[in-house]
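Reopening this one. Same input as before:
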Amino acid sequence: MAKADGDPVVAVRDPEPGALDGGERRQLDLVRRFGTIGALLMMVGSLGASATPIFNPVPGVPVLGMFSRMPSVALAIAWSGIFMIVLAWLWLGRLVRPGRIRLLSRVQMDRTLVMWVAPLLLVLPMFSKDVYSYLAQSEIAARGMDPYTVGPGPALGNDNPLARGVPNIWRETPAPYGPLFLAVGRVISAIVGNHVVTGVYLHRLLALVGVAMIVWALPRLAPRFGVQPVFALWLGAANPLVIFHLVAGAHNDGLAIGLMLVGFELALRKMPVVAPGMSPPPRQPGEIPWVIVGATVITLGAAVKIPAALALGFLGVLIARRWGGRFSDLLKAAAVLTPVFLVVLAASSLGTGLGFGWASTLDVAKTVKSWLSPTTALGYLGGGIGLVLGLGNHTESMIGVTRLIGQAVSVPICAKLLWDALKGRIKPMNGLGAGVGAVLILGPTVQPWYFLWALLPLATAMIGARFRIVATVTSAAIALVIPPTGGTFDGRAFVVPQAVVAALIVVALCLFVARRRLAPLWRGKTEPTV
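Same output, byte for byte:
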């Protein structure tokens, strides 16, 4: 595969890979079934091991209700499914590795993704309870109150079915989401009222719209930056983090990321794909209108979650490089994109009637003190050292200082990435992935699904073997961080290790039974490469 330089668009000029042979199709069939069984186990386990709402319809249903009375068993079943999906995804990666003579087709990848996702469409929320916050904050907006100044508890009352599902830590806080998302949520609230389960499914449908946009955009962006489309789909859309957190968890990050990627692709719609080392042709008629359309869609993504706005900076760099790469070209690109961003964001804020209150709630996430956040972990470390040295407990102050430093450091990192992209040292999509990753990782709190903000852009442009290994291992590890219940096990912490051990035994038995059919998947050298 030709290695891409920093130019905005680079074609994949290597010989087209062939279709899988008979043995590889049998391997694919086995991988699909293994992952589908895992998804079905997650679906069954979710009946007793999901982030269930206060008003849970399952316990009263014959047969299905028994899982809610056996949470440890349900958790073990769900973990079994989680392990099986992660293993299936890793095995599938062997059939899409860049450089192979034969690769999965786009149709084969799409069918695999559908098989793994379909069983999880009707499960109750898993891995997180954020969707209950979406419902409560949307109901606040539907009642004509300002979700950016009042939390679910004070606005709806703690006995309200929607407020009761919100975790205690978020019950008093205002909404941290953009006006477009809350406006759509307001429509959902008008439809479902206080019916929590129906609201959950409609929010999952909204998340699936975002996943569909990701599936549409990844294979179109990838060839522009020298990456095989099917590999981008495997690393991006078929990633367990997408399946677990965007589908089963119904997170609105999927909608924001989907709009960001679709907007980037639309902005490049009229820009020709050029081969490495060749100068791009003169500006084509119709380029600017498509750039404006793409910038509009990206801004709509920012009106869901603000990190999507960073994509406009790297889109501007890409356009400036196409126009000559001079600083004056960068100013011209900014003159096109900045008004679009301001007008669309203002229209989203004022047109929805929610105003600009979202700007004052962007730091609401700092309420959570997550050990996954490096800045928060450093704050805890500093506070602990202070206690050991007898200086008193200054943990909160230390966390505040380290978080401030982290946010300050992310600014020059993004500026350096933008400059490198302008000078052609890195691809703009790589800069976008690294930049938004730096902003989120150095932010006050980090959640497992935040990794997707960096991974999905990088999946379209990064082709190095080291990146593939790091991204694969990191994705598989992060996919196993949060229990499917989306909550802690205070007072019964023994439940998780017991469930995990039971799940490992189940998966080991499955592997033993199917060991002969699975043998080709774990042999050392079965992948023909060019």
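So the earlier flakiness isn't reproducible anymore. For the record, Confidence is low (pLDDT under 50) at residues 1-13.
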